[in-house]
Each structure stands twice: as C-alpha cells, then as structure tokens.
Design goal:
homodimer, DNA-binding, 71% helix, 245 residues, elongated, mainly alpha, 12 helices
DNA sequence: AGTTGACTCTGACCTTGCGTCATAGTTTAC
DNA sequence: GTAAACTATGACGCAAGGTCAGAGTCAACT
C-alpha cells in the first residue's frame, strides 16, 4: 500500500492529479484510511500504467475511464492499439525533424505544412475509441450505468467482491460442486443486472481474466484469499461446460 | 494573401486559433481588409511554421511569442534546439513503445514507470526557454516593452518599416552616401530607444538578417521595394566600418 | 438588382486538466 | 509533546482553445 506521495514519486503523476483521478473514478484509491488518506495497491499501479499510456496519446481522461471500465475491455487489444498509435506519433515526430532539418539546410521557402498534419493519427485514435464504445454490450452498459455516481460504482464493486469472498471460503472444495456453481450463477446474474447481459461466452472470457495473473486476479485473491481467482476460473469453466449440453 | 480559411486548410490550424494568435500577437495577420478580414502573406506563414514547431513541443504560446520576438532571436539556434527536443521526444516515445511491448509479452509485473519520466526533456526545454530570456539585451527589452499592447507593437513595427520605406526611396544611390548613413543612424537610434541598446555589432548582425532572404528580408522589400533589404545591409556595413576607425 | 450560400467578424461562455493557495486535520520523529 | 512533514477538501486561476450567437461581407447565380 502506497500513499499519494509515494505513488507520485514513483510515477511522476502529481498528487493533485491523483486526487482528480480518484474523484472522477479514473483511478480510485484502492482504500482509504479512517482519516481519509488515499492508499494504492499494485492493482491500482497497474491501472495507472494503462491510464498513463492512454494519456500520453492525448486521450481525454473521461474517454480513458470509459475504455478501461468498458465491459469488453481487453488489455492486449488496448496495448496493440497503443503501440500502433505510438508508432504513428513517432513517425509524426520524425517528419517534423526532417522538416526542421530541411529548413536549416535549404531555407524555409518550401512552405510545407504536411508534417504538422495529424489527420491520420486523429482518425486512428477516433477509431480506437469507437471500437470500445460501439459494441452492443457497451450500449447496454451505458444505459444501465447512466446516472450512477462514483460512489455507486464503488458500491457495486464491493458487492461483486463480496461474491468472490464467498467463493474464497469454499476454494478448497470442488469447483464443480453445487455451492460453487450457485455462486457462479449468482455472479453471472449480478453482472447481467448491473452491467450488461453476461452470456456464457462472456462469462468464460471473464473467468480467464480472473485467473490470468493480472489486476483482476490480484483483486479477487485479495477478496477471497490466495487462489480464489484460479478457483473462480475453474468453477466458471465447469458451469459453462455443463450448460453447453 | 490568404484568408483565414485558406491558412487553416493549408496548415491544419483552426480559424479560432488563428484569431487567438492574432489577438495575442503571436501571429498577427499581415493585413486586414476594410471590413476587418484577416489576410496572411508568406512571411506570416513562415512565422507560423516556427510557431507550430514550438507548439508541437508544448511550449506555452506566450513563451513562443517571447522567443520569436526576442531581439536576439536566431532562427538557426531555434531550429537546433527544436531538433534536439524533437529527438528527445522521439526517444521518449520509443521507450513507451518498448514498455508497452514488454507488458504485452511478459505481463505487467515489472511496474516500471521510468518510461513516463519527462524530467530530462522538461529540463532541456526549460534551459532552451531560458537561453532566450536571460541575455542582457532581453532584460532591457522586457523593461522597455513592459505594458506595451499588441497595438503599440504594431505601431512600432510600422514606424520601423517607415524607415525602410525611406531607404527604399534611395536604394539606387550609394549605400555609403550621406542620406543612407543618416537613415542607418536613425534606425539604430530607433532600435535602442524602443527595444534594447543597439550596438554596432548587433546592428551589423541585424543587417545580415535584412539581406538574408528570410522573412525580415521579405518584409523590408515589401516596405521599400525590391532590393531594399540588400541595400540596408550594405548601408549598415558601411556605417559600422566607418565607425570602427 | 436581389437573393442565396459560404465566409468572416466579435464577444461571451464552456471545457479539460491540472497548478496554486488556504485552511484544517494527521502522522512521524525526536 | 511538539515540530516537521503529509494529507484532505475546497475555491479559485489558467491555457488553449471549442462552441454558439448575432451581425456583417462577399461571390455568384438568377
């Protein structure tokens, strides 16, 4: 657990910015002390890394939040897009260097402004944003979450984590057992109710993230104890397999 | 002469931005029609190119104006700095690409935020800015121009140009002749009075810019007729040489 | 000559992403 | 137990425009 100061030192993000990111839900503090001090864990840092990559690409913070919180968010897809955009930006800068060198050597008489043109880059960024906000799942999520405050969202997250805490309590039992299967159904219903229709396919995808070693995994293990994410993954697989027949 | 629309199309700068740049003196319209429409000539475009290079490097517009209008402004020095900064920016982006690739391949467990660090870049940019604002000439200029409005500045520019118009009228005569030499002295005094103490050395440097084929040259030729810049250059050289003895 | 459509002007207000106090409570270290 | 260092909230300020609104201008077609 790190304080704002420590996070700020480590990442170069100002304390003021952390306040803002917290309040707008872009990077909520993982926890708060009784006196209201913000504390951040590794999952938060991981999220911050994502945020900073998007920020570097001049995405509006609201959009970043939307993208990262999108029900269909996929880190790898995001990284690919980010790399692509970074490459375009690099190219853009190379063009500017060439332009500046050209002026140095041959004077300014060319009047070439193409190097400043960011249309391609902007267009790609627009597409990238759209790719997160135009799926049916997202539309549904938008509707259901309209008018929700950051408070509400934290509340929902807490209720979701409560389910994983329950799972954690039986993680030494059979993932295909009745209690575990009931909890999986409870989870699926909860997601459907509060975010978007959670098909078995989507549930299965989520399950992979729960055990994938990412921030999801960490969060879940924190709620239910070491190995809960892995357990949830197996329980979900059993659930989905059974329903296939 | 181009309209705002045309300039906007050519350069990608919005019309609104052009309005703002005009009002703040960063990029004054070269001329206005009776009805108040802004018109831009090639010298303005040249200046805009400089502005955009600095803007790309996230220099505040006010600083850009200061730098470009600095009595000691030197296009080549500026270009060198810009290239250096662009190279650093490029490197920064390359680091980010590496970071993103690393996360893709090996997961996020490294928690490396160094790639986001812009301290080196910021520091260099700070130095670059300072290098324009810390010469004695600049300090003097700051004092003399304190409280001057954009209107005042245009006025001064017009009075300066009037001197070149006078020069233009005698540009078929001897640059070392009495009339020409009087005008050079008038110019030197005008600069000393309104900007900073214009030593013979500085005057000589300025003279080179007047004939160098840049925007200065263009502006002067526009005020006094083709060849006036060249004439001014020679007149100044004669003036300075004579005073050396 | 009149009208239409595309431009342009100014001015006022809105927005983003913070920086900068001010004020007040909290924790840590000696 | 007190100083020094942190932290929180809130209010305000700022840059660099975007976005109308209201009004004038210009070119072109009819």
């Amino acid at each position: 657990m790190m304080t704002v100061h420590e996070v700020s030192e480590l990442t170069g993000v100002s304390i003021r910015a952390l306040h803002i990111y917290d309040r707008m839900g872009l990077l909520p503090a993982s926890q708060k002390t009784e006196s209201g001090y913000r504390l951040y864990d590794d999952a938060a840092l991981e999220r911050l890394q994502q945020v900073l990559l998007f920020r570097e690409l001049d995405f509006p913070l609201k959009d970043i939040r939307k993208i990262i919180d999108s029900p269909v968010f996929d880190r790898n897809k995001a990284l690919e897009q980010q790399i692509e955009l970074l490459k375009m930006k690099k190219e853009h800068i190379e063009n500017l260097i060439d332009l500046a060198r050209g002026i140095q050597l041959r004077g300014v008489k060319h009047m070439n402004f193409e190097a400043f043109d960011t249309k391609k880059l902007d267009e790609y960024a627009r597409q990238a944003k759209e790719s997160w906000g135009s799926t049916p799942e997202w539309k549904e999520y938008e509707q259901k979450s309209a008018g929700r405050t950051a408070e509400d969202n934290r509340n929902l997250a807490a209720r979701m984590m409560a389910i994983f805490t329950e799972m954690g309590q039986i993680r030494d039992q059979d993932p295909a057992g009745e209690k575990a299967q009931q909890l999986v159904k409870k989870l699926q219903d909860f997601i459907t109710e509060n975010t978007y229709t959670c098909s078995d396919q989507i549930l299965s995808d989520l399950g992979k993230a729960y055990a994938g070693g990412g921030s999801m995994n960490d969060n879940i293990d924190k709620a239910g104890g070491e190995g809960t994410g892995e357990f949830a993954h197996r329980a979900i697989e059993a659930y989905v397999q059974r329903r296939k027949q």
